[in-house]
Amino acid sequence: RAISTVVLALCSKGDHIVAQRNCYAGTLAFLNGPCARLGIEVTFVDGRNAQEFVSAVRPGKTMMVMAESPSNPHLDLVDLTALGAIKGPITVIDSTLATPLGQRPHDYGVSIVLHSATKGIAGHNDATIGVIAGDAELIGEIWGYSILHGATASPFDAMNALRGVRTLDARLARQCESAQTLAEWLEQQKNVTAVHYPGLKSHPQHALAKKQMNNFGAVLSFEIAGGKPAATKLLGALSLIRPAVTLGGTETLISHSASSTHNSVDVETKTKTGLTESLLRLSVGLEACIDIQRDLATALAQAN
Questions:
Q1: H helices of 133-215, where?
Q2: E strand or H helix at 227, and its extent?
Q3: Does residue 162 fall inside a structural domain?
Q4: Tens digit of pLDDT for each residue in 105-133?
Q5: What is the SS3 assignment for 216?
Q6: In the chain, is it the N or the C terminus that has fewer CB atoms within a 10 Å radius of its CB?
Q7: Distance between CA atoms of 69 and 159, rounded to whole angstroms?
């Protein structure tokens, strides 16, 4: 709702948006569906290449440049310095996977920062709420539209989000520590073919992550040998880790992105963004890291 509110509040028929294609499927569906129907043109680029954003901007036509970092589910990064330096269009970033404690895009000149506060900020999988942060002038425009749009949090959701904010620092510290340990361990497993986590030295954008992130987040993804059949076996063999599509909460959750959150994404986009049938996204919770690791080890052995 935060993304649709921002776009519909600030863009009109005939406007142009530059957006990265390696992002949450709900964002892609909104940009390809309602935006196209309303006459808002969208050009998709590879968010890992900052120059593609710049090159796609049409002076006097492009109203907005939209990014997501880290991306869901591949954990790709966008160079915040380069994004914030784009002149003319309003720059927007979905920073959900990092949380406000993980990175501060406003410090790099980005106009608007979005969060699905349903995830890490609320942190208990019991609230539906979003955050839009920006300069007062832009927020005033968005607020005026949001009242008409009806994207208003219920009192219960607001209360749960406020409760979550109070413990975000403590939760995130433990989750990030466990995520780093698990990512390093997964890299050593014979039937794991790839691990995607900005905290790993093997991540192609690790240097960028160290530059612009305060921590590397509670979410990682990995790919398992054997494709979807092996991934399905692994999901069925877990006992502590729960298969579910949300993230950022106290419980460790896992999902097969290609058949769940990103099921609606076309084959071409999946190929371009590296979203394979063997990819599993892991949202690390507050359980003892060794218990999460043992559950994964058992499931990996059965999937093999």
A1: 136-149, 155-187, 206-212
A2: helix 227-237
A3: no
A4: 999 999 999 999 999 999 999 999 999 99
A5: coil
A6: C
A7: 27
Both 115 and 191 in a single domain? Answer: no
pTM comes to: 0.95
Distances (CA, A) of 36 to 4, 235, 236: 13, 36, 39
Beta-carbon contacts of residue 132 (< 8 Å; ≥ 6 apart): 2, 5, 6, 112, 113, 114, 139, 142
Count Cα neighbours of 150 within 13 Å in the Cβ-side half-sphere: 0
Measured between alpha carbons, how far is 207 from 205 in angstroms, rounded to an integer? Answer: 5
Pair 147, 14 in one domain? yes
Of 156, 178, 212, the last residue of a domain is 156
CA–CA distance, 43 with 204 (Å, rounded to integer): 25
95 and 7 fall within a common domain: yes
Give the count of beta carbons closer than 10 Å to the beta carbon of residue 20: 27
Q: Which two tokens stand for residue 280?
A: 């599993």
Pick the closest to residue 121 from 4, 246, 27 (CA basis): 246
Element (H, E) at 229: helix 227-237
Determine whether 35 is exposed, middle or buried from the number of CB atoms within 10 Å of its CB (0-12, 13-18, 19+): buried
With beta carbons less than 8 A apart as the criterion, state whether 292 and 242 touch.
Answer: no
Range of the domain at 126: 3-156
Q: pLDDT tens digit string along 33-51?
A: 999 999 999 999 999 999 9
- DSSP for 28-68? HHHHHTHHHHTT-EEEEE-TT-HHHHHHH--TTTEEEEEEE
Strands 112-115 and 90-94: parallel
